[in-house]
Write a structure and sequence with these properties.
The complex is a heterodimer. By secondary structure, chain A is an alpha+beta fold. Chain A has helices at 32-39, 95-103, 112-125, 131-137, 148-167; strands at 10-17, 20-27, 58-61, 64-67, 80-82. Chain B has a five-stranded antiparallel beta sheet, with helices on both faces. In chain B, strands 11, 12, 13, 14 and 15 form a five-stranded antiparallel beta sheet that branches. In chain B, strands 1-3-2 form a three-stranded parallel beta sheet, with helices on one face. The chains are: A alpha+beta, B alpha+beta.
Chain lengths: 168, 292
């Protein structure tokens, strides 16, 4: 066994977050979600169930939507992470955020970051989805107060906005 | 912090993995995609002292078509298999079943080998492996053992693997060009755990008859269950309504599911019969297709 593969309780890892590079020393049992929130102050990633059911903690790992509560922070080493904080440019809302705003796609906002990241990855892969496809795409994200009807509308409006952006 | 304390190792090769298992075997747990194990760790239902993370073992992430079979590395992401042209063309049943596995966010991390090794009774992939007659490549320090689905799945969340072994690949015979297939499932919502699921493969035998019929169920026993009496009853027959009704009854009779908060045993038996008919009808309608 090489030294690099010996079991350890703490590790220093480096990865990209929203375009910047971070280096962290973390206990190996810390989830990526907790590291994002507690170590990096990126509290936009919300934690609901912490066992992969609610989708609130969804982030992008190398561009793919994943549950950050079902990953260890040490597993992010060398990867690229994008959180809800990376959606807007700091000045203007991202088109998906605008769409949520315009269609009342959020009420309390707790589930919203997970929805936004799920939808960002989904619309990149399927820019012109049907309503059924939208329903399936967001089935892994739970909302308990806004209601899914307006969230589905938001995805449709977001698809139009993003389509208009890329087609001009 | 959610999980109880453990030590963590991230080997980069199968050899390093086996060395770690040899050292820590019974106290160690292998981490594949983490979509089942991480919840168990977060809820402290699993408390391994050493976690051996397979995610850096890149040699186990591949899909290769060779000599009439498709070999899939255990660390291949479910989403990669779902998008694979090889799987779409040769393992249509797997491609269809994968869409029922959790949600896209789960499949982006979840692996083919992780789902099989976890052996959840409601998981889809074990039924696919059972129906297609996959070979499980279980590697230990002494080399690899090749296990059939019947030998690999021992019971509820239990496989024939020893603590110092790792599932490295599965070899799945490519489906015949004229095969028909179907994977159907009933769950409360899409992406939830299956209450009952059924996988069927059939081959046309001329004059509307079918041969080499295979039928398996999930969610109704400790492991995927093939009902060979039902398969035998369908062999060489046309799938007329009366026969399918008899088969549905046979299926419901042979299964002995448990009741839980999600569904009663009686409901599961009934649904299994209904799904048997649906799966067989759909598989028959797809058989003999003009595929390359």
């Amino acid at each position: 066994m090489t030294k690099a593969t010996l079991p350890v309780a703490e590790r220093t890892v480096a990865f990209a977050v929203n375009g910047g590079r971070v280096e962290l020393t973390v206990p190996v049992r810390k989830t990526l979600a907790d590291a994002l929130r507690d170590d990096l102050g990126l509290t936009g990633t919300h934690l609901g169930c912490e066992h992969g059911v609610c989708g609130a903690c969804t982030i992008l790992l190398d561009g793919q939507a994943v549950r950050s509560c079902l990953m260890l922070a040490v597993q992010a080493d060398g990867h690229e992470v994008r959180t809800v904080e990376g959606l807007s440019d700091g000045e203007h809302l991202h088109p998906i955020q605008e769409a949520f705003w315009e269609t009342h796609g959020l009420q309390c906002g707790f589930c919203t970051p997970g929805f936004l990241m799920t939808i960002e990855a989904f619309l990149r892969e399927n820019p012109h989805p049907t309503e059924d496809e939208i329903r399936e795409a967001i089935a892994g994200n739970l909302c308990r107060c806004t209601g899914y009807v307006n969230i589905i509308k938001a995805v449709q409006v977001a698809a139009d906005k993003l389509g208009a952006t890329t087609e001009t | 912090m959610k999980p109880a304390a453990f030590l963590y190792a991230a080997p980069e090769t199968v050899e390093e993995t086996l060395a770690l298992l040899a050292e820590y075997g019974p106290d160690a747990k292998l981490l594949a995609g983490g979509q089942s194990l991480m919840p168990l760790l977060n809820m402290r239902l699993a408390r391994p002292s050493v976690l051996v993370d397979l995610n850096r073992v890149t040699a186990l992430d591949f899909i290769a078509a060779t000599n009439g079979e498709v070999r899939i590395g255990a660390m291949t992401r479910q989403r990669a298999a779902e998008r694979s042209p090889v799987v779409a063309a040769r393992l249509q049943l797997m491609a269809e079943a994968l869409r029922w596995v959790g949600h896209p966010q789960i499949r982006n991390r979840g692996t083919i080998g992780g789902s099989l090794a976890h052996a959840d009774p409601s998981a889809e992939l074990p039924a696919v492996a059972a129906v297609l007659g996959a070979t499980f490549v279980v590697t230990g320090q002494g080399g690899a053992r090749l296990l059939s689905p019947d030998d690999f799945f021992v019971g509820y969340l239990t496989t024939a693997m020893q603590p110092d072994e790792v599932l490295t690949e599965i070899w799945v015979p490519a489906m015949a060009a004229d095969a028909g297939w179907a994977f159907v499932e009933v769950a409360r919502r899409h992406g939830d755990f299956a209450l009952v699921g059924a996988a069927a493969v059939v081959h046309p035998a001329g004059d509307g008859r079918f041969r080499d019929v295979r039928l398996a169920f999930i969610g109704v026993g400790p492991a995927p269950i093939r009902i060979k009496e039902a398969e035998a009853a369908l062999e060489g027959r046309t799938f007329e309504e009366g026969l399918l009704v008899d088969v549905a009854r046979l299926v419901a009779d042979r299964l002995d599911p448990e009741s839980d908060i999600h569904a009663s045993a009686a409901y599961r038996k009934h649904v299994a019969g209904v799904l048997a008919r649906r799966a067989l009808t759909m598989a028959a309608s797809r058989a003999g297709g003009q595929r390359a």
